Amino acid sequence: MMNDRQRASLFMCLVARQLSGNSQISDQEEILSITQKLAHDENNSNGDGIISSSSTTTTEAIDLLQKQESFNGVLQIFQVEALISLKRFDKVIQSIENCCKVASNLSHLYLCERLVESVLQSQHSSKQDGLKVLQKIILLYQKQYSEQRQQWNNNNNGVVKKAFIERYSKWIRLLVSTALAVSKETGFQCLEETYNYLKQHGVSMNYPESELYYLVVVAWNEGITWFHANDNNHGSAWCKLAFDLLSLYNDTNQKESLKQKLTQAYANLCIKKVMS
After folding, report:
1. pTM for the full model?
2. What is the dihedral of CA 77, 82, 85, 86, to 10 degrees?
3. Residue 80 class from Cβ within 10 Å (0-12 exposed, 13-18 middle, 19+ buried)?
4. Average pLDDT of the residues of the chain
5. Quick one: DSSP state of residue 257?
């Protein structure tokens, strides 16, 4: 196991390599190697009973754990970015999946978000890669919501809950747009899965209606596009999904107003189809 000076020296080397911005394979391989060494040493040091020492107070132990989590988080970011530069996306996706599996609080969630953002911002990643990591962050959000919502309600912590749901809704928007870029079928499946989840949890979530409106518009526009392409089956399926999403609105007046407009537009479209 390395001493503090050795670890600090190796970490500074890692930071210097990262800040250099050099994308050569040899440099990225070195960054990856350093992160793995530091992570391995960190895991070994965590098992040496340092935290459980009788001379360590509870406050000191918590502080130490938080520092270790922060340090490990930085290592994971460096590691994933190196893997992205090396185009090892199977390893990238596996790393993000592992991070999501062990995430147990909002700090862990935000770390996973940072890793997903690295994939989405990379010029080397494909739409399929983006979709895979987005699906993992969505599942993690849903898991966190199930675990945290009772505590938020008991503590009347509406501000934290609102911020959480707003972030979740932005990821849903990104998921849907990415899924549609992969294929229309994939986009429909993601929207349908989103509807089924919100049908069960949307009211208690107080899902933002501006984001719900976006989903309705996406489904409706896709339906109209299919109708214009003379594919009535797909057109009907997408338009029905738009109406299903619209039913989740909490604002009754706005829901009825939009429903009337869409119903009239759908009726007019059907008449044109019959007459053509």
Report:
1. 0.79
2. -140
3. buried
4. 81
5. H
